[in-house]
Structures are given as C-alpha cells and as structure tokens.
Request: fold
Amino acid sequence: MSTSGKNAPATVISIALLAAALLIGNFAHQAGRLLGYALPGVLLLGAVLTPISLLMARQWEKAVVLRLGKLHAVRGPGMFVIVPFVDAVTAWIDQRIQTTQFNAEQALTKDTVPANIDAILFWQVHDPERAALEITDYQSAILRVAQTSLREMIGASPLSALMSERKAADQQLKEEIGRKTADWGVSAVSVEIRDVAIPAELQDAMSRQAQAEREKAARVILGSAEQEIAQKFLDAANVYAQNPAALQLRAMNIIYETTKERGSTILIPSAMVDSMNPGGIMGLAAVAAQAAPGLPQVNPAAAPAGPAA
Reply:
C-alpha cells in the first residue's frame, strides 16, 4: 500500500494508545491481575492498526479503495477510514494540472521535409476511478499518445502551416490527444508547440527563396511606380501641349524656384528670353484673365513693348 496516506493525526493517536497500553499493563502487573492485561492488549492492537486504517488524502488527491479486490469507493480529500487487511488503497490520483514534454524527431511533413518538433502537453485527471482501473500507467500512456498524435499531425501538414499556424496546430493536437485519453479519465487542457527545427541546408534554401521573393516584389513595386510617374508626365505633357501659356508659366516658376534661395546667375537661351519678354508676359496675363474672369484684368497696351523681332 502506498505511504501517501500516512498522516500526523494517526501517528499521534497510535502513540497515545501505545502509552495508555503500557501504563495500564504496568498497573495490572503490579496489582497481579491477569485479566488486567486484556485492555492493554486491545490498546496495543489499536496502536498498531491505527496508522494503516486512518488515512488522509490531501486537497488535490483522490484515493481509490478496493475491498477484497473489488472497487469499494473513491475517498478524499481529507481523513477517511479503511478496514485493515480487507480494504486496500490501490492508487492515489493527483488531480492537479500536470505537464508532459514530448517531441518528434526527423518526422516528415506532408511536403516531405524532415522536422524536429518539441511540444508540451498540459493535462489533468478528471475521473480518478477510470484512471486507476482502465489503464495500467496513464502517465506513460499519455506520453505515447502525445508523441503519436504529434507525428500524425506533422505527416498531414505542410511545413509552412506548421511554422506559421502554431495556434491552429496547438488546438488540433489538444483535440486529438483529448479524444484518445478521454476513456482513461484524463483531459488534455492545452498543448503548446515550443520549437520547429529543420535542417540547416533547408533553412539556407528557404532564406534564399524568401530573399528572391522579396526582391521580386520590390522590382514589381518599382515598376508600378515608374509606370505611374510616366503616366503623370504624359498627362502633364498633354496639358502643356493644349495650353502653351501653362508651359510658359511653368518655365517661369522653375526659374524662380531655382534662383530664390541661391541667388545665382542663370544663362537663358535667347529663345526663352524672347518668350518671357514683358509683352509676352502681359499676353500670358491677359490669357489667364480671360480663362478666369474673377481675377483682376491687366491692360496689355499699358505694358512696354518688347524688342522687335
């Protein structure tokens, strides 16, 4: 029988009975009464049987009691009494959440990639009777079931899913292990995959593939930007072709932006000077005024004439 049920109260009672038996036996011996030895004998027997009949289960424990080989009761937590030599506690079941670490080495994924995966299973006994009677060693069985379920999941999943969808893989493992251990009175609380390791050569190849894909995406984005810029230039050229005044105003703005901060001297071709003479400027202003009636009107005749062609 397991020593888990031993407790201080039973030990104290046993010592008290033993002391009482010794005192009464000593008194009977001095009095010379043979019948006085009966009570000390009973007390002595009680002192011997108390530690094995008065047991205690801790708050998280359950004791499975068999009577003459058959299930009698599930006791605990707290103090309980069994009949010595008739009842026996066959198992002390810990009902706290426990952890089991398991792994799968060199297991092939669905896309035939070898992978080493480490995981942790959190489990709990919810039915002590089944855990004690339905299986010999439920702790070892849980480890075997977890390893088998992990290998089955690896074989049914591609590597990309195992590496990117950890939460889904954890949930799938939990459900599969819980389904297999439910008949033993054990529940799978959660599963956490800690690490997914692949060969170094494959890691290097995947790194190069990811780099190539990123470079491809960057080139596509750059090409799209160039296309948009070209389209904007084409639209601007169409506007300038339809409205020469807009082109001349743009040229004037470029010259202004270039010289306003640096104060440098710019050499302008004579053709551009002719296009920007005062008369030409007044003509541009008149065209702009006709296009926008709300702007102040400018009299071209008041402007000085430009040099003769």
Observations:
- Strands lie at 54-57, 61-67, 70-75, 78-81, 87-94, 98-108, 114-125, 186-197.
- Confidence is low (pLDDT under 50) at residues 277-289, 291-309.
- The first strand starts at residue 54 and ends at 57.
